[in-house]
């Protein structure tokens, strides 16, 4: 009811590997959708922030960065239909390339040319992302200015300690 134009639910299936947040494909007469949710249970502080994902991809929609269309963001916790926060976006065709060497392309000149096109596309996307003006995209309050790397490594260390089952020397 919160996704405009959604009609004719057919099926839902969980995506396999690679997501820190549970991710599902939804098939409907009106199209294909992706639902990304926080995992159930107690979570580490600031982990699994699907609302941040939704906000950033929504902000990038009017830029040269290719992102799927964001369709709906649920409320947090008990206010959510599934008891935890999630968002729904359109599903786009694509493929997941796990190994940066791209061994699935094979060997030889043709395979290397395909690799080059993939790397060129990745570089074009990274350049588009770096060209985004956070203020113009509506992300002026997203994150704090300053030493990003120190904050990240500090947060990772805190999260590691908070989830540690036994002390490692």
Short description:
This protein is α+β, with helices and mostly antiparallel strands.
Structural commentary:
The protein has 169 residues and is of the alpha+beta class. The protein contains 3 helices and 5 strands; from the N terminus they run βββαββαα. The protein has a 5-stranded antiparallel β-sheet, with helices on one face. The chain is globular and about 55 Å long.
Distinct helical segment count:
3
Radius of gyration: 19 Å
* Strand numbers in spatial order across the main sheet: 1-2-3-5-4
Major β-sheet annotation: 5 strands, antiparallel
Sheet/helix structural class: alpha+beta
In angstroms, what separates the terminal alpha carbons?
52 Å
Helix content: 25-40%
Shape verdict:
globular
Question: Averaging pLDDT over every residue, what do you get?
Answer: 87
Proportion of strand residues = 15-25%
**How many distinct beta strands?**
5
Q: Which blocks of ≥5 consecutive residues have pLDDT under 50?
A: none
Q: What is the H/E string?
A: EEEHEEHH
Question: What topology does this entry show?
Answer:
Layout: E1 9-14, E2 23-28, E3 31-37, H1 50-60, E4 70-73, E5 86-90, H2 109-131, H3 148-163
Antiparallel strand pairs: 1-2, 2-3, 3-5, 4-5
List keywords for this structure.
169 residues; alpha+beta; five-stranded antiparallel beta sheet; 3 helices; 5 strands
